[in-house]
Fold:
Amino acid sequence: MPKGKYVVIEGSDGTGKSTQVRLLRQYLQKNGIDSIEFHEPEDATLPITSKIRNIIKDKNLERKPETNLLLFTISRHEIWHKRAKPALESGVWVVASRNYFSTLVYQGFGEGLDRDLIMLITKSFTSEDYLSPDGSVILTLENESERLKRITHRDGKSPSDTFESRDQKFQKKLFDGYVELAKQMNIPAIDSNISPENLNKKIVKELSAQIGKF
Structure:
């Protein structure tokens, strides 16, 4: 049985990743492709990852960037080995909102951690398949007021978690980080300030160029 494909939709909070994961899975289903999804750093089927996510998102728990790296890595390890890898081996596609690209941007560009350290820790607890998705795109949104409006609409309140609530200077670091990462790793960057349906079409086009028509 051929392995499934591992696809990553990456980007800052408020760029529409969750919506695009849902739309992509609907597209796959229409084309007869089975898939699962997860949203790092959490998978609802793995309670430990939900607890880790709660710690990560609690801005009242002060911690160093190294601690964030380790928390994300623990969750990543659980999700990859218990959920994603078995699915891929059984021929099911895995559609993920975020992967270690987030840590390269948030902990690397945002919090100043050394990229080599991030890669060393990530490589030690995942696998080559995780590090090299079959297809990936980065969603960007330079309009900060639009990004905040989306988060508020989604959550029903102003941004309040560890990273969403940080100042505009930090958010600019993240935006610039994603743009730079896209260049460094040759990942298509797509402006998400368009309708979800048109964004889905662009994502399918970019992924098809990487994976082949599906």
About this structure: The longest strand covers residues 6-11.
